[in-house]
């Protein structure tokens, strides 16, 4: 396997970061030896998702859909990796369009599931609702002026079930968000006038929850 040398191989020392959550993904990896921890941050708290070892792939999602890394990867021991970059991976997929479509669809579903898990891990109801709206805005929102519009038949009751919040509590949270012009319900969907403002609101709620007992 002569190709798995030089630019096609990477070695990490224990504790070394391979990539961080949110990084741009240009490569996927196969672990030849060693162990790698996969984790992400939910509500300011680190969550370990998996510990991968010899024979495991990682980083494949980002090179399929060009989205940022959904988790961080750090070497738990000395690690040896084989590297496959996006160009080589795409070239293989393009030989079979059906396989490319299938893998892309599976990655999209997995990202949506990962996002939902991160939302449900947050303890505070306000954080859950705000995080869910942010995720919907990023994934489904169409540009609308300075904000985005999420087309669909959304109701407070439906959003409450989606994020695991009681209907009365969800209605109260959403009414306050509307009064603050963070969101607006319409017959065709939900308008988010400013994604940065909504993210700032979510960060404030997250910090408030994190330090409320301090």
Describe this structure in words.
The chain has 214 residues and is an alpha+beta fold. It has helices at residues 60-65, 86-94, 97-121, 125-140, 156-163, 167-179, 195-210, and strands at residues 9-12, 17-19, 27-33, 36-42, 45-52, 57-58, 72-75, 79-85, 142-144, 147-151, 184-186, 189-192. It folds into two domains: 6-113, Jelly Rolls, CATH 2.60.120; 123-210, Arc Repressor Mutant, subunit A (Orthogonal Bundle), CATH 1.10.10. Residues 1-7 have low confidence and may be disordered. The protein has seven helices and twelve strands. The protein is globular, with a radius of gyration of 20 Å. The longest helix is centred in the middle third of the chain and has 25 residues, at 97-121. The strands form three sheets. It has a four-stranded antiparallel sheet with strand order 1-8-3-6. Strands 2-7-4-5 form a four-stranded antiparallel sheet. Helix 4 (125-140) packs across helix 5 (156-163) and helix 5 crosses helix 6.
């Amino acid at each position: 396997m002569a190709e798995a040398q030089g630019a096609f191989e990477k070695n990490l020392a224990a504790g070394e970061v391979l990539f961080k959550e949110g990084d741009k993904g240009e490569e996927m990896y196969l672990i030849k030896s060693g162990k790698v921890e996969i984790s992400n941050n939910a509500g300011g708290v680190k969550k370990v998702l998996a510990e991968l070892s010899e024979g495991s792939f990682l980083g494949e999602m980002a090179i399929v859909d060009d989205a940022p890394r959904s988790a961080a990867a750090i070497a738990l021991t000395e690690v040896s990796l084989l590297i496959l970059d996006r160009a080589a991976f795409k070239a293989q997929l393009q030989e079979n369009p059906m396989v490319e479509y299938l893998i892309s669809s599976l990655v999209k579903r997995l990202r949506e599931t990962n996002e939902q898990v991160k939302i449900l891990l947050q303890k505070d109801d306000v954080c859950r609702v705000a995080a869910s709206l942010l995720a919907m805005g990023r994934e489904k929102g169409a540009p609308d002026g300075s904000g985005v519009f999420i087309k669909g038949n959304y109701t407070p009751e439906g959003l409450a079930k989606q994020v695991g919040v009681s209907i009365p509590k969800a209605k109260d949270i959403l009414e306050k968000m509307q009064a603050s012009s963070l969101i607006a319900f319409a017959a065709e969907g939900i308008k988010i006038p400013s994604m940065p403002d909504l993210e700032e609101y979510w960060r404030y709620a997250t910090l408030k929850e994190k330090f409320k007992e301090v």
